[in-house]
């Protein structure tokens, strides 16, 4: 026992000395690679070949720096590293001679030099694979790997590129933990500094690695990669690059077989990529439409997944062949059910889907109506329902787009209480909802005589008159247009005249409107002219304090003002006017 202990100590000492000697050689190799990378930037011939060689050198440098950071506790593995380092040094020296020949243009022939460069590239590729094997087998663990510091805000592009290259190397040759750490660091710099997004597109290899990681059996690796590609897909300039790299297929596979969290990340990315319809066919070709429809029809999924899935299908529905496929698969029925969801995002995207799929297509509009689409949309407009203002606005716009071109649909709306809902939001809605309601009310007036009568009976006139005093010119203009349409019905004119305040507000609006020849003023005058068909209307206008203003407009040759004066200048009302008019 006494003799054995000194023997063990001697072995440990020898191992430590060998380890330090190997690290000295390793430093020499790393310096040689650094020098070679710098020299390669001066080469102006065989540029593509040298770009490929430089990438391999950068990957190799990062991996070797990790070995250099190993402590003496890894000395038991020194035999493995000591065999690799001299081999790499030989290749580096050989490559350095080729680089010098390319810089000096002293090589004997292009074809021969191309052949030499192909051989040297293959050697470096093998070195990288050998190094990767050390990580895979656990000989070199992430605990010993040096962590390159993230460059500062004022860092040069070269420093940023080196940092990204280091992360790329770790993603390629590292163990699972090192890959996760590299992906996390990459996501952080991309989220905080857009310059890195452009940089990884320029490097190119990173995107290919990320696409491969989307198919990784390691859920955490897949999730981290999904977060990064989702971030990149938010930049319009780089969407095409992601698609060309083959990202759609892996994303669809996640939608088909991934866990819920993975599906949420994948569907958000696909939604961004399909904002432009150019990528629609790629999603369809990989089975994405079927996978998304399955998600939307599955009641077990939450709004975080179904909402964006609805959004993707809404983006794809503009392609006629894909739209027909969705209809055949029962998408309309599925989305009508989703309209009554409790999730705002799901409701909004499903309503926009229905709007996009049926707009301008009478046969599909009939299917939407037959499947209960109108009742579902009216449910969103129920004052008792707790939905956002934006959701109500989308519901109003969808009803307008789908229903107002068909008298049958308008009748269904009126029978199901649509008029009452419009009046409620015109009176009590938030500003954005009130304005949307006003626009829909105006459009409905122009679309149906029955609707005009129903609105007059329901009490729309006083609410519209109040809006003549709104701050927004657009609101005042739409309210005026709507009133002009309503008073075309005799019964509505009588209701208008019954409230003295209505004519007063109308005349005040006429007085306030500065543009003599503006369309709004013309409509106001036209409304007043129509009101003179009633005895009470003529009397109330004539007895108001605004006749002077009407006379001025008539003097300015405003046609409807002249008509109004004629109406009021009958024998019975002539004495009430301040002057005589001769025509």
UniProtKB/TrEMBL annotation:
The UniProt entry annotates ARM repeats at 287-331, 459-486
Extract the Pfam families matched here. Answer: Arm, DUF7032
Keyword annotations of the record: Repeat
Which residue numbers delimit the DUF7032 domain? Answer: 28-139
Domain of life where this protein originates: Eukaryota
- The identity of this protein, by name, is Vacuolar protein 8-like
What is the species listed in this Swiss-Prot or TrEMBL entry? Gossypium australe
């Amino acid at each position: 026992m006494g003799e054995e202990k000194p023997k063990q100590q001697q072995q440990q000492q020898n191992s430590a000395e060998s380890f330090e000697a190997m690290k000295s050689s390793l430093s020499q190799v790393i310096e040689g690679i650094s020098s070679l990378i710098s020299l390669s930037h001066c080469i102006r011939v065989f540029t593509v070949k040298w770009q490929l060689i430089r990438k391999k050198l950068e990957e190799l440098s990062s991996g070797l720096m990790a070995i250099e950071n190993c402590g003496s506790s890894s000395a038991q593995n020194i035999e493995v590293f000591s065999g690799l380092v001299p081999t790499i040094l030989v290749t580096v020296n050989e490559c350095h001679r080729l680089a010098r020949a390319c810089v000096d243009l002293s090589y004997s022939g292009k074809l021969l030099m191309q052949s030499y460069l192909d051989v040297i590239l293959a050697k470096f590729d093998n070195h990288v694979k050998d190094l990767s094997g050390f990580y895979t087998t656990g000989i070199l663990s992430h605990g010993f790997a040096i962590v390159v510091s993230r460059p500062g805000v004022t860092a040069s592009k070269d420093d940023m590129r080196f940092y990204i290259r280091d992360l790329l190397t770790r993603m390629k040759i590292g163990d699972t933990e090192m890959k996760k750490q590299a992906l996390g660091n990459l996501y952080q710099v991309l989220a905080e500094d857009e310059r890195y997004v452009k940089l990884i597109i320029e490097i190119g290899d990173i995107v290919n690695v990320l696409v491969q990681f989307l198919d990784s059996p390691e859920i955490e690796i897949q999730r981290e990669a999904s977060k990064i590609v989702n971030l990149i897909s938010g930049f319009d300039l780089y969407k095409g690059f992601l698609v060309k790299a083959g990202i759609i297929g892996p994303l669809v596979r996640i939608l088909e077989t991934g866990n819920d969290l993975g599906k949420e990340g994948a569907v958000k990315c696909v939604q961004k990529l399909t904002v432009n319809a150019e990528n629609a066919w790629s999603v369809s070709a990989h089975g994405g439409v079927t996978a998304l429809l399955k998600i939307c029809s599955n009641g077990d999924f939450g709004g975080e997944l179904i909402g964006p899935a609805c959004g993707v299908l809404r983006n794809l529905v503009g392609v006629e062949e894909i739209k027909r496929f969705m209809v055949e698969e029962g998408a309309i029925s599925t989305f009508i059910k989703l309209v009554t969801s409790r999730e705002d995002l799901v409701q909004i995207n499903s309503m926009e889907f229905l709007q996009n799929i049926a707009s301008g297509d009478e046969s599909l509009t009939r299917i939407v109506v037959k499947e209960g689409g109108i009742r579902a949309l009216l449910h969103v407009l129920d004052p008792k329902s707790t939905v956002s203002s934006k959701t109500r606005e989308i519901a109003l716009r969808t009803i307008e787009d789908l229903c107002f071109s068909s008298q049958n649909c308008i009748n269904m709306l009126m029978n199901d209480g649509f008029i009452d809902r419009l009046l409620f939001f015109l009176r009590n809605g938030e500003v954005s909802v009130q304005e949307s309601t006003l626009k829909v009310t105006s459009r409905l007036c122009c679309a149906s005589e029955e609707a005009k009568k129903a609105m007059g009976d329901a009490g729309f006139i006083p609410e519209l008159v109040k809006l003549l005093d709104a701050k927004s010119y657009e609101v005042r203009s739409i309210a005026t247009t709507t009133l002009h349409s309503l008073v075309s019905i005799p019964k509505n004119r009588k209701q208008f005249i019954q409230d003295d305040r209505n004519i007063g507000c109308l005349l005040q609006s006429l007085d306030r409107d500065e543009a003599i020849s503006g369309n709004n003023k013309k409509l106001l005058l036209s409304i007043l002219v129509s009101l003179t068909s009633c005895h009470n209307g003529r009397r109330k206008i004539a007895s108001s304090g605004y006749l002077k203003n009407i006379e001025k407009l008539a003097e300015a040759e405003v046609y409807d003002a002249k008509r109004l004066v004629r109406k009021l200048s009958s024998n019975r009302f002539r004495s009430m006017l301040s002057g005589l008019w001769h025509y």
